[in-house]
Amino acid sequence: MEVTNTIGRRKTSVARIYMKPGNGNITVNKKELAVYFPFDLHQIVVRQPLTLINQDGSYDIQINVDGGGIKGQAEAIRMAISRALCEINEENRPPLKKEGFLTRDSRMVERKKAGRKKARRKFQFSKR
Fold first, then answer.
1. Residues of 47-78 as b/e, b for ≥16 C-beta within 10 angstroms?
2. Where does the pLDDT of residue 1 fall: very low under 50, low under 70, confident under 90, or very high at 90 and above?
3. How high is the pLDDT of residue 128?
4. What is the pLDDT of residues 65-91, one digit of tens each?
5. I need a surface site. Which of 24, 71, 99, 103 has the fewest CB within 10 A?
6. Sequence-ordered alpha helix ranges (H) in the chain
7. In this structure, which CATH number among 3.40.50.720, 2.40.40.20, 3.30.230.10, 1.10.357.20 belongs to the domain 4-99?
């Protein structure tokens, strides 16, 4: 029983996963998946790579996720699981790559600039 360790990132979220053959238990920060992600859409996002290659329920996954919001964390976990599945079996790579699960989404929040209200929003101009 070899444990596969990978990392996934999205926005400011970082997910570290430990995947081993098992019966489909997924724990996120020592909580069940349904408890950590109560919204069904996020649970679906986390399970997408496993359902895509028909491996749902065949791996036990322990996840440590930090930073960002709920959606960013779910997508970081999806990327980490996809990388682990590629590490386990190279034949899993083409379908996961086609769906875009292996591509790091580099979009981040733009930083606030000096002399402005937000990143691009300027203060209201008053002629008089």
1. bbbbebbebeeebbbbbbbeebeebbbbbbbb
2. low
3. 86
4. 999 999 999 999 999 999 999 999 999
5. 103
6. 33-36, 40-52, 70-88, 93-99
7. 3.30.230.10
**Taking all residues of the chain, what is their mean pLDDT, rounded to a whole number?**
94
CA pseudo-torsion sign 11, 17, 19, 24: negative
Q: What 3-state class would DSSP assign to 6?
A: strand
Amino acid (1-letter code) at residue 89: N
In terms of residues, how long is the chain? 128
The whole-angstrom separation of Cα 102 and Cα 100 is 6
Token code pair at residue 16: 């570290």
Residue type, 80: A
